[in-house]
From TrEMBL, chains A, B:
Source organism phylogeny: Archaea, Methanobacteriati, Methanobacteriota, Stenosarchaea group, Halobacteria
Keyword Glycoprotein in record: no
Protein name: Transcription termination factor FttA
Residues reported to bind Zn(2+) 2: 260-261, 366, 615
Function: Terminates transcription on the whole genome. Termination is linked to FttA-mediated RNA cleavage and does not require NTP hydrolysis. Cleaves endonucleolytically at the RNA exit channel of RNA polymerase (RNAP); the 5'-3' exonuclease activity of this protein degrades the nascent RNA released from RNAP.
Species: Natronorubrum tibetense GA33
Amino acid sequence: MSEREAITGETAILSMSDDTIHSDLHERVRNEVPSHLDVTDVQYEGPDLVIYTETPREFARDDDILGTLAHALRKRVTIRPVPGTQSSPAKAKEVIHDVVPENANIQNLEFQSSTGEVFINAEKPGLVIGQRGSTVREITKEVGWNPEVVRTPPMESSTVNNVRNYLTQERAERRDFLANVGEKIHGSPDKDVDWVRVTTLGCCREVGRASFVLHTPNTKILIDCGDKPGAEGEVPYLHVPEAMPLTELDAVVLTHAHLDHSALLPLLFKYGYDGPIYTTEPTRDLMGLLQLDYLDVASKEGRTPPYASEQVRQAIKHTIPVDYGAVTDIAPDIKLTMHNAGHILGSATAHFHVGNGFHNIVFSGDVHYEPTRLFNGAINDFPRAETMFMESTYGRRNDFQADTDESEARVREIIRETYDQNGIVVIPAFAVGRSQELMLVLEEAMREDEIPTMPIYLDGMIREATAIHTAYPEYLRDGLRQRILHEDENPFMADQFQQVDGGQPMREEIAGDEPSIILSTSGMVTGGPIMSWLELLGPESNNTLLFVGYQADGTLGRRIKSGRTEVTLEGRANHLTLHCRIESVSGFSGHADRNGLEQYVKEMNPQPETILCVHGDDQATDQLSSALYQKHNIRTHQPKNLETFRFP
Amino acid sequence: MSEREAITGETAILSMSDDTIHSDLHERVRNEVPSHLDVTDVQYEGPDLVIYTETPREFARDDDILGTLAHALRKRVTIRPVPGTQSSPAKAKEVIHDVVPENANIQNLEFQSSTGEVFINAEKPGLVIGQRGSTVREITKEVGWNPEVVRTPPMESSTVNNVRNYLTQERAERRDFLANVGEKIHGSPDKDVDWVRVTTLGCCREVGRASFVLHTPNTKILIDCGDKPGAEGEVPYLHVPEAMPLTELDAVVLTHAHLDHSALLPLLFKYGYDGPIYTTEPTRDLMGLLQLDYLDVASKEGRTPPYASEQVRQAIKHTIPVDYGAVTDIAPDIKLTMHNAGHILGSATAHFHVGNGFHNIVFSGDVHYEPTRLFNGAINDFPRAETMFMESTYGRRNDFQADTDESEARVREIIRETYDQNGIVVIPAFAVGRSQELMLVLEEAMREDEIPTMPIYLDGMIREATAIHTAYPEYLRDGLRQRILHEDENPFMADQFQQVDGGQPMREEIAGDEPSIILSTSGMVTGGPIMSWLELLGPESNNTLLFVGYQADGTLGRRIKSGRTEVTLEGRANHLTLHCRIESVSGFSGHADRNGLEQYVKEMNPQPETILCVHGDDQATDQLSSALYQKHNIRTHQPKNLETFRFP
């Protein structure tokens, strides 16, 4: 998936043993490397093994050496030149511009002499990499520098820029951190793995505060650490002994960036955790965006945030990105593989291979099984997956969502009707996921004249989140990826999309203006600019409030959707009566519906032995677990928070 | 049950709130006590509240004062005289001998001036106490000393003597310990009790290493801590975070003394635990006996015992005895009540009342539901018991034991047949429980001439264990208690019982002698003198090896019972072929059979909502939990070790 993969010689290491290579590491590497190649030093860098050499050019000449080494050493291997063995940056720059096709559009080069890496920022990174990595290898052969290829996002994203700049700035400290993590990962497990356990710290018989501890005799891993929308006091049970002390966690795995999975991750660093977070690269960036917003919303609402922005930076600094499908050692007895979950950008299903073939546990995270406009459908194809923790948001007997085509038609109809009444359609939406889906629907509808072309205002972090999507097109659905990479076809850059960047005066102006469409956060009407829109547009009967996403228990969104028209907005004195039209269209969820959840399980091969239904309310988890048991004869559980299950 | 109860004014406090009385304790006591009575000091002593007074005689005059205080303060209350307010020991001795009827047979008096207590050792303690405590109150009124009445056992028991002497010697340290424990128990709970959890550390889908952690937001309690017969390496999972650090456990509760429940309790003290063990008085003594023997056997077999005898003493010193039926605060949010379990001497079912009416959890411990010759049947009458952890030793579909009358007849028949062949019957038996049951059967059979009178040799700790039984007749079945208290009817003191106290030479002599019956430990043929008996008697076809108790998986007893006649005795060079007759008679188990387990549940009122079947092998727990679910519509689980269940 990632550009890096092509040059690190990754190979399938799922079924290999955890034979320690630590004590005699240098010697073992030396033995595997042909004698004409120099091995000056060998170091761990997180899950990877880095070989420093005075002969980087000769390494690059051997097409197979990385694959051979990875297989022999049972690690992912990266080659780095010993400082001083490379051409000068000036000379190297010349060669790189020579070797790389011009239409790759190299934006800038950054030479890191401490690691021997050259960061090549380009609009078309694929052209820098070349067929199976041939161009980057050519560069190394010529100049001795190790190219790290980075995509210049087509839409500028301050989040992406900030994260990249911050990581560059923290590079030295991060190298120490990665070396430390590497030492731990590649040590021998102390004890035989004769059990693996999962403790539920949240999101059982509820939607929100996802958090689990996965525990073997050697290792303790936290999976997700979210908040609960509409119930700020209900945080994951981190203080129980299964999780404490947090400093003894070996790793954290984050399935995706939504706050009900990520909001409280920075808290771990406040309490002394300093280990890695494994997640995808886009999730790292989105999580930073959403966590900072979480702090912002909390302080605006007069709550004391549980941590500060410094801890968000800590979380980012401690993130080790993993690509979909890449098997990664994260502990001496655990290999992690993340797979596309189809839910939001970078969202993943986390597959844990525990022990040397002892057991496999999958955490579905939030999944969408069918492909959507944005993403390919969730992967449910695991070589082995005896146990699965499965989301059940729409697990109720009748939780069937409308067909997407019908849903889109209904949205267009509502927009046309509101337009005809000279009204404005306001859509509460998660900044991440549903907003981009709707943007694609609306852009297409206007392009094809199915609705009148009118301004589509993006309020809150929607534009920024969209820019992050364009920075990681590899994570988008196949066709969409191509369109984004051609600037004039990038649907997110259509003219009608306008950022609400003028605060309340701009909102008032928009509210008094011609018909338009507004996408605004938060998606469950629990805070953020949607509150202003409610105040401005709610009292007028020609406007429409349109729900397209899941509204959790206890949120204002749920109350309004259920028919409540008298609302009091927190932090605002005025009581408000909604006279606007209130509509709800299903079919845009980032979650599989009941049918999708059943299909997901049904089409697994082999089927899991045990499924634990979580991330759904009492009825949803109960009804889904009963159905899976009855229809598929799989042992199912409906866990409570604070329980521990042992496998196998 | 106990003599002490009569003078501590205990009352039912099950449903009362945990209102703290700590900060203003002295004042509150002062307010409740009539003004003519002095309150010099108020102290906690474990679960009890002790009032020190200069007017002990006046307190004793008021029949109701203790009950009134206990009710008002919601604590068990004891009154102690301030030193110096009592008559001299000489004068007091005179008065006591005056007041107590002569046939109480006072053996000796011991004055403890530090506590104002006088220990009255008597053969008939009931006569010292008098009707509803009238005689002891009379003593206090006259002399100001507080009588503590102790039974002189009819059979001398070195265990009972040693424990009592040791506790007397450690009295000062114990008082500090009890004061500490009291402070903790009677503090306010820090957090609301909105959950209670149980983690299984052993004895799930297996028989052995019983151990559970009961956990609330404020409190962590360990229940039992046993070994696993036939699998010495398999100890409870004490190292998991739910139990660690052991120093943070608030209390330990022991259901009964058998090693599969008690063997590893002393280990806790090795790892720094210094809190209380709650159990019955006879369990305390039996546990000491069995643990010391456990150390002895381990070192004889060349294993390194996991702890030393010093830790056994620690365990005894930290034991706070509780009587059957007495509701006892053991933490700010937990009340414990132990009930007769009918299994062995002092065996208990532990009922935990959690929070202020929040939830009730019962650990059955090992139960025998029907009365036996030795014990009344297990109590299953709880005001509330929403959740029950239930033993399932004989939980299999066909685990029905023979009728007791038939079993006894069969034993007599086997004995007669062996006698007629001039052979010896050797019966492997637990020192505690089955041995005494058999002694009663054999004594009666000889007395009634149903079998020839012949020597019955007791090898191992059987005699000592029997003596402990006679020290606690209140814990025996009603009729038996009376017989033990009349020396000439005490069945355990019949002439034919002879201790094997001459070691191997005596065994060889017995083996070469006339027909006899031998009861010898260990009950599952895993070590101890039974190994010598196998060697001496097993090769001869006129002898009989008779199994009457449960033989766990992995034990030599199980293998022989299943038909194996070629055995190798550990630590002995010789291979052995058994030619003796091998018989097995069920119906003497200390465990309820499948029918008894079902009846136990069926007759509960109200029925528990959830039953977790433990302490049985895979099949037994599976089949019992299925049956209870299907027949009684109770939610059942078949836990694994290392799982955590949350209630309600």
